[in-house]
Structures are given as structure tokens and as C-alpha cells.
Amino acid sequence: MKKSILLTLAFVFSLVSFSFAQDAKTIKLDQTKGEFNVQGLTLSEGTYVFEVTNAGVDHEVGFVIAPKGKTDQANHIKEGYLPNTIKDGETASSKQVTLTKGEYVFFCPLNPTPEYVIKVE
Known about the structure:
By secondary structure, this protein is α+β, with helices and mostly antiparallel strands. It is 17% helix and 36% strand. The protein has one domain (24-120): Immunoglobulin-like (Sandwich), CATH 2.60.40.420.
């Protein structure tokens, strides 16, 4: 009986986790030499996954999201990091990042790129 209840709870929790994972919207960005193809975003409050492609940069690149004006490493939104740096032609995705109203920036410190504004309304 106990085992049956535990299995049922595990199944319910996996369904809940799966439904939350589907709520994230994917933002696709290409990094070229010295810039991103999207040079600013206006988004609604919510949860996002950032999918970044190295599109022609001859060295590895990364991705950082931080509150606008607070771009030192201590303020980076760690879930926004890619799991690893990516080489030319490779694509990687961040974990889910929940953004609330305000302004953020995204950039690559390795490329390097300008800081592009994400406005969350």
C-alpha cells in the first residue's frame, strides 16, 4: 500500500514538473563576430530559455543575463548561463530563467558584444 502511494505521488510530481517545463518560452539568438542578431528584446513577465548559436565567431562564445546597471559577475542570473561555451556552428540553451518587470541586459564577455537591453513589462 505504501509503495503504491509513493509511486502515485512520484507520478503526480513528474506531471507537475513536466507542465512547468512546457511554460517556458524559447528565445533564439545568433552570435556573430562582435554582436547578436537581436539587439534588444521586449518581453512579458515569465519564464524563458535562451538558445544561443555561435554563427561564425572563430572562437568559443558564452551568454550572460544581468540586471541593467549591475553586470558584475556577482549579479549575473546564473540560470541564464549556457552549460558550456560554444564553438562556431554549435548551439546551447540556458536553464529556465524567470524574469520579472524591469530591465536586464544580455551580452557575451568572450566575443565581446555590447550589452543589449531586455525590457520586461
